[in-house]
Amino acid sequence: MKRWRVNKPDHNLVAEFMRKCDLNKLTLEVMVSRGYTDFDSIAGFFSVDTLDDPFIIKDMQSAVDTINDAVDAYDLICVYGDYDCDGVTATAVLYNYLLNIGANVMYYIPERSEGYGMNMNAVEKLHDMGVQLIVTVDNGISAIQEADRIAELGMKLVVTDHHQPSERLPKANAVIDLHRQDCPSTFKNLAGVGVALKLCAALDDGNYDMVMEQYADICALGTIADIVPLKGENRTIVRNGLMYMKNTENPALGYLMEKAKVNRERLNSVAIAFQMAPKINAAGRFGSPLTAVKAILSEDDEDAENYVDTLMTLNDQRKSTEAEIMTEIFKYIDSNPHILDQRVLVISGKGWHHGVIGIVSSKILDYYGKPNVIISIDDNGVGRGSARSVNGFNIFKCFSYAQDYIEQFGGHECAGGLTLKEGNIAGFTQKVLEYANSFEQMPTTEILADKVIMPEDLSIDNIKGLSVLEPFGAGNPEPVFAMAGVKVDKITALSQGKHTRLDVTYANLRTQVLIFSHSPESLPFAVGDLIDLMVNVGINVYNGKESVSIKAIDYRLRGINQDKYFAAKDCYEKYCRGEVLPTAFLNKINSSRSELVNIYKYISSVGEVSVDKLYMKMIAPSMNYCKLRLCIDAFSELGLVSFVPSMQKIRILPVTEKVDLENSSVLKSLRAKITERGN
Q: Is the peptide bond preceding residue 471 cis, with omega within 30 degrees of 0?
């Protein structure tokens, strides 16, 4: 279960803004909910139709002069990129622009095995090839030693990057990074490809018209993939990019949309993020990033299609490898169920593909709601890890606390990476758990709703009005709404039970709700129940007729007290870790025989059930999550049920002889603690 948080927009502000603009009430409620509490900020959200003069950026003129001198002298220029989608698209944009203005230009992208950014071997190699100017895209700001070596070799260097610089900047003819303290640019959150676009515009005397027409579609792909906030200039780039991409003249982008089954007429940032960008990233993870660059740069239809076919194959390999690693992790958890009682999950394995452990870490976070570190150990005993966390638990600070056991690490609050020796994993894990246990209350994953959507809000015109907020993505997510007290009238299986459709009544409105990837049997409610929902809304078109589409992203039985749930869950984990709980807590988690019988009867009636579904079915004033889990542990110990920790599922087992519940050591231990405290 995820924690829910529902914003409540100020209705007085909404009413005031409605008098000043033609946005509908629902759209303004979403904006006010997100902190747009003065009219200038709302106007500013919609007024970014152009990009700032690129020459505002520190060192832009020096970069242009250096590159133009190299172009005029026909010096060999190398565009040095990165292997992710942002780096690939930035490389393609700048390389193609320089090629079109007559430059003697090549590109270089390190393979993932070389590591991120510039490296000495590459610098030496490029020098031997006769390169006289290196222009980095999406990297270079931390390449201090490499920059010094470039200068020693007599080459020139222009750095363009969007990552945070350290106190010392690399030695270069120009260092373009909007996060430089002395950079006066107003918008700081461009992706690497956005910085490359601005450099191209500067090389075109500051004019964006040609470069936007030529490269906006590629820039939109890289910007969305890099998960930078889709506000300000990023919003401008992506809005223009989506418009151009619908009718793109880039053969590879056309084939990518076709083979990824993207509807061009309904193309949006979500389709790019989930259907297109992963294919580009797959090249750097499982093949060579050069495949992706060559695809984007290809002007020949047949070549472009072949490259895209390779990207599709590599992406299939990526998904298969992810699934294999997830299976290994689930097996490990089932053999070591105590790991789920820890506040942070640290899991390692031999030979896991380091190109996907970041994705696996994200999936583990979503599945268990816990910060985690996934470590792949190579044949030399070196572990490379990726971590994902939740707001409120800073994984970078956690790594800093455990740095005595780490060779290298980096990151920010919600994501990080590290390198450590296999022999240090145990010590590292201990320090991570020590840091996590210092928190009085551990932060959890949450779903944030912009507001409770009312039945009268669910009109076609209102939902259509939300489209002005697009493109959606990081910093500007698709609106999420809460629906409270929805009555379930009918439950229908879709796609052979893979998905579910609910017919519901919401106050005086009868409508339908879709639940994807969940069968009717897995749902914790039945016809006639009242439920609460977190939903996305949209417009569905079928046979030319429009209707409101409601898609559930989470659901609960009405009346669940989430604070009580999470407090009791934390209590259970503390109890399993052997921590001392107050006597009052021990009494609250001690089950009666009738409670044990009722729980067992329900499990018997359904055969198999998830822990959260069982919790919702057993909800009562005297029942809490910790008590329920101890009952399950007792049943499992006595052979009445099997419990699969990785899936958090309970299955009934056949019983051949009478079982005395009082023989459970789980229950005996708890009651002994209570008796001991009583004395």
A: yes
Please tell me the distance from the alpha carbon of residue 157 to that of residue 136, in angstroms, as a whole number. Answer: 8
- Contact present, 71 and 77 (Cβ < 8 Å): yes
Rg (CA), the chain: 28
Between the alpha carbon of residue 454 and those of residues 15, 25, 145, 171, 535, the distances in Å are: 17, 12, 59, 58, 12
10 Å CB burial of residue 445 (0-12, 13-18, 19+) is middle
Per-residue pLDDT reduced to its tens digit, 339-366: 999 999 999 999 999 889 999 999 999 9
pLDDT level of residue 679 (50, 70, 90 thresholds)? low
- Burial environment of residue 421 by CB neighbours within 10 A (0 to 12, 13 to 18, 19 or more): middle
Helix (H, G, I), strand (E, B) or coil at 421: strand
Encoding tokens for residue 190? 């461009």
Q: Which of 204, 150, 380 is nearest to 158 (CA)?
A: 150
- Write out the H or E segment, with its range, that includes residue 575: helix 562-576
Contacts of 140 by beta carbon, 8 Å cutoff, 6+ apart: 80, 117, 118, 147, 157, 159, 160, 161, 170, 172
Residue 310, Cβ neighbours under 10 Å: how many? 19
Quick one: residue 349, left, alpha or beta (phi over 0 = left, psi -120 to 50 = alpha)? Answer: beta
Task: Check: CB of residue 431 under 8 Å from CB of residue 404.
Answer: yes
Q: Which helix (H) or strand (E) holds 464?
A: helix 460-465
pLDDT tens-digit readout, 469-492: 999 999 999 999 999 999 999 999
Q: What is the pLDDT of residue 115?
A: 79
Nearest to 406 by CA among 416, 391, 414, 415: 416
Nearest Cα to 77, choosing from 189, 20, 158? 158
pLDDT digits (tens, 9 = 90+) for 388-426: 999 999 999 999 999 999 998 888 899 999 999 999 999
Confidence of residue 656 (pLDDT cuts 50, 70, 90): confident
